[in-house]
Write a structure and sequence with these properties.
Elements lengths: L5 H16 L4 E7 L4 H17 L4 E7 L4 H7 L6 E6 L4 E4 L5 H7 L3 H14 L4
Parallel strand pairs: 1-2
Antiparallel strand pairs: 1-3, 3-4
Length: 128
């Protein structure tokens, strides 16, 4: 009996192609302490960063540690606001109002986004 090996021979290439086009969804959790102006800024800033650099590829969960102190204890949150990148690994933490967007983008390992931003800024600069 003759078997068709063309499908099995192409399987590794197909898996590689699928992996290359797989969409990575970032799982982020922002811990805030009440509805303070600092918390509101952090929420606004991280949403803006996510929409700009991760459009449709992120899941952001906002946890108010004054309402859910157990969550803060489990994650060992000692300051708020704190953003925790759960996925993709490695996990990372960012503390503050998330206003330093370039630092957040770098920390989220979105280098291509940072390179685009730097290129755009260079293009905007007048030549001397």
């Amino acid at each position: 009996m003759k078997t068709d090996n063309t499908l099995s021979a192409g399987a590794p290439a197909m898996e590689t192609a699928i992996a290359a086009h797989a969409v990575v969804v970032y799982i982020l959790r922002l811990y805030i302490a009440g509805l303070s102006p600092r918390s509101a800024r952090a929420i606004s800033n991280i949403r803006k960063i996510c929409e700009e650099h991760l459009e449709g590829r992120y899941d952001l969960d906002v946890v108010d540690i004054s309402q859910q102190p157990g969550q803060a204890q489990i994650e060992q949150i000692i300051a708020a606001p704190t953003l925790v990148k759960k996925w993709p690994l490695p996990a990372r933490r960012f503390v503050g109002d998330m206003s330093r967007s370039e630092r957040i983008v770098l920390g989220l390992d979105l280098r291509e986004a940072v390179e685009k931003t730097v290129s755009a800024r260079r293009a905007e600069m007048p030549c001397l």
